[in-house]
Amino acid sequence: MKATDIPFVRHIGIEEENSELSLDFKNDVLNHIKTIHASAQFTLAETQSGIHLQNLFPDLEGKVLPVLRDAQIKYRKPAQEKIIAFASTDAEDVAKFRSQFEKRGRASIQINVDVKDVNGVLTSQAAFTWFVQAL
């Protein structure tokens, strides 16, 4: 399933372009102080982490069940414009995941996501730990 086809992701209006997710600044996702709601930022970041996981291990698609095990997020600045999510993973963590997965058929990996507005202002930072098991 494509990440942007997930009903809740589609509901809040997350869009994808070149494996990069964004969320427009619009009334449907604003909070009580007229900035992008924390839960909308979380959803954007979590979804981007899932896409990043798929991009890291395209050979595993359809052969595994990835489940989010842990998430930590810090909100840095109010999101007052369109936001974009950027994911990254340490090369060492990718190698460790691959080794564990090959030995046990399951492994965990942490994916970091920075959410920035269109002007480059960091609005939130998150770390998502995915547990991946062979089917």
Provide a descriptive summary of the structure in words.
This protein is an alpha+beta fold. Helix content is 29%, strand content 37%. The protein is built from 3 helices and 6 strands, in the order αββαββαββ. A 6-stranded antiparallel sheet has the order 1-2-4-5-6-3. The longest helix is centred in the middle third of the chain and has 19 residues, at 38-56.
How are the elements arranged and paired?
Elements lengths: L6 H6 L2 E3 L2 E4 L14 H19 L7 E12 L7 E6 L2 H14 L1 E12 L4 E13 L1
Output the helix-strand order. HEEHEEHEE
* Tally of individual helices: 3
Count of β-strands: 6
How helix-rich are the residues, as a percent range? 25-40%
pLDDT averaged residue by residue: 96
* Cα distance spanning the termini: 16 Å
Name the beta content range.
Answer: 35-45%
Principal-axes geometry comes out as: elongated
As laid out across the biggest beta sheet, the strand order is 1-2-4-5-6-3
Described by strand count, sense and barrel closure, the largest sheet is: 6 strands, antiparallel
